[in-house]
Structures are given as C-alpha cells and as structure tokens.
Amino acid sequence: MNNDRNRRRDIMNCMLRLVVEQGIQNTPMSQLAKEAGVAAGTIYHHFPSKEFLINELYLDSKEAFGKAIMVNFTQDKSYREKFEIVARNIYDFYVDHEINFLFSEQISRSTLITAENRRLGELNYMPILEFLELGIKLKELRSMEVELMAQLIYSNISAALHLHLSDCLIMTEERLKTVIASSWDGIKYKL
After folding, report:
1. Which domain, by its residues, includes 172?
2. What is the pTM of this model?
3. How many domains are contained in the chain?
C-alpha cells in the first residue's frame, strides 16, 4: 500500500515538473509515463485521465499553500504583525516551493479545473479570508470585498516572487519588508 502511495506521489511530482516546464497541452501522458518510469496503465490505475491528474495537482498545491500561510500565526501579536506574518508566509512558501508557484500561475485560470475542485481549493484560504474580515470589523483594514483584498495582497507578493525567481532583482529582507508594507498601506483603514 505504501509503494502504491509512493508511486502515485512520484507520478504527480513528475507531472507537476513537466507541466511547469512545458505547459499542460504540451505534456502528453505518454511522456509522463516515460519520464516517471512507469507503464501508461500504472498512471491510469491512479488517475483516470490527464484532467483528473491536473485537478489532483491543483488540490494538492492549494492544500500545501493553505497550511503554510498560517504558520507562526499567534494571537499575542498586533493585527499588523499578524498580517506581516501571513504575507511573509506566502512569500516564503513560494520561494521554498518554486514549482508550486509556477504551477499556480499557469493553472489559475485553466478551464481544466472543475468548479467543484475550485471550490474545494478555495476552502484552504478560508483562514486568511476570515482574518481579513476580522481586520475590516476591527477597523484595521478598509472596507472592501475580502476576495479583492486578498488578490491585491497576493499581487504584490507575486510581483516580488517574479522578480526574485527571474533574478531581475535580489529580494533582500529590506525589499521584502517594503513589499509587505506596500501591501499593508494599500488595504489599511484610513481615518
């Protein structure tokens, strides 16, 4: 049973790498079988279709991201300090899991992801959305749709990640703090 799980994980990791390197449409299942070192039948034993496999990768990526964004989140900090922790967690997760970031960027608007799996994937973000809603109620954050607010925050961090990963700009600690402060300034409550 453990070998079966490991083989399934190996196939998923191989597909993730191939999709990031070549794109979804340019990654045939025959190449996946060859690169993963398994028979096509083994892949289809675990995943009924390429679309099913892509959806599994999507859910797996969203779950890992969801767990990472609330790490070191403690109640003994100010709201802004908690915000900075969450923003830093997003950045650190994707720096440590570059392949997940590149996959997420590629798959975010793909029609291959089912509506049900999009909904399931979004459940992983509930803690952050609830945190933003709390900030609005506490008048720490300006009043706006939390989904829009989350996208604004993510866009700033994503831009920093693109610069870092493309080696266009070394993302020093000071620069990252500036990115996070810019995100905060864009959503904080203004008297």
Report:
1. 58-187
2. 0.90
3. 2
